[in-house]
Amino acid sequence: MNTVLVLGGAGYVGSHVCKALAARGDTPVVFDNLSSGHAHAVKWGPLVRGDIRSSSDLDCAFAKYRPDGVMHFAANIEVGEGEKEPLRFWENNVGGVITLLGAMARAGVKPLVFSSTCAVYGEPNLVPITETETCKPVSVYGRTKRAVEILLTDLARIGEIRYAALRYFNAAGASPNGEIGEEHDPETHLIPNALKAAASVGGKMKLFGTDYDTRDGTCIRDYVHVMDLADAHLAALDKLMAGEREIIANLGTGHGASVLEVLQAVERVTGLKTPYDVRPRRDGDAAVLTADLEHARRVLDFKPKMSDIDSIIVDAWRFHKKTWGISR
Ligand code: UDP
């Protein structure tokens, strides 16, 4: 049984990982400044309100809870915001990790599971994307995540830490019992936005681009259920605890759905059509981003179990209906 300090554990992926940790008997200690996370999503262990950029906040948490390992989710993730405020992203996403690594060194804790992203690849040369693809991130967000990966490699080389960088494709869905789910503000992601428009909570959805070189002209993404992602974090932590020094793995499903296919799945699941307006392409959107899963299968025994698109939408819909007060 491990005690795990979960930075950003009040957020979307972090809270689902906490649930999975607790389900197998580990203790997640959430450290979060609640700038975008939610106290009501912290249900499986203590919540420390603190800032990842504060050495003293971190030192206090390490001294009080003596964690065996660390997981990091405490980052700014909204790609458009990063383009407008790069310094804020670099301070939090990179500066925050540097401060965290100092605290880990002082506390003598080595295992770190870091949430990275397929945005580190930018426009890939080949899809599905393998981990050997060149990293050429095209957003501030992707560059901050890539910078941390490089830093972690340097520290792992001299034995300062043992780390896993998990490159998520499109995290989606919610806890199947509806108790936690995706609650971003502003919400920019496709599935919650499609459900919102379908449920007439807000206006029409904006569909960004129908002129891509794909089967129906809309972008193709690899949607992976957040509970499958959570399982991969547990597997990565176990490997690090057992002495593995470095894991870099894509987490997706290996196949993609187009924006229009997601809207068809929304209609199958909810019985509702998503009203939408076609808009121009969104800056920085690649046509197709899907994961090659071979490496994650090998190193983490990763097998998505809940990630077919209809199951993802069933779980997302159950959660959103509750939060939007929809009874049907
Ligand atoms: N998308 C869209 N309308 C929205 C949100 C997203 O058309 O309101 C499209 C977006 O352009 C991309 C896909 O849906 O092609 C997935 O976008 P999302 O923001 O969910 O994830 P990303 O792949 O950008 O991380």
TrEMBL record:
Keywords for this protein: Carbohydrate metabolism, Isomerase, NAD
A molecular function GO annotation: UDP-glucose 4-epimerase activity
Catalysed conversion reaction: UDP-alpha-D-glucose = UDP-alpha-D-galactose
Pathway(s) the chain acts in: Carbohydrate metabolism; galactose metabolism
Cofactor(s) annotated in UniProt: NAD(+)
NAD-dependent epimerase/dehydratase domain ranges (all copies): 4-252
Its EC number(s): 5.1.3.2
InterPro entries: Epimerase_deHydtase (IPR001509), NAD(P)-bd_dom_sf (IPR036291), UDP_G4E (IPR005886)
Listed Pfam families: Epimerase
Similarity-based family: Belongs to the NAD(P)-dependent epimerase/dehydratase family.
Subunit structure: Homodimer.
Protein's UniProt name: UDP-glucose 4-epimerase
Gene transcribed to yield this protein: galE
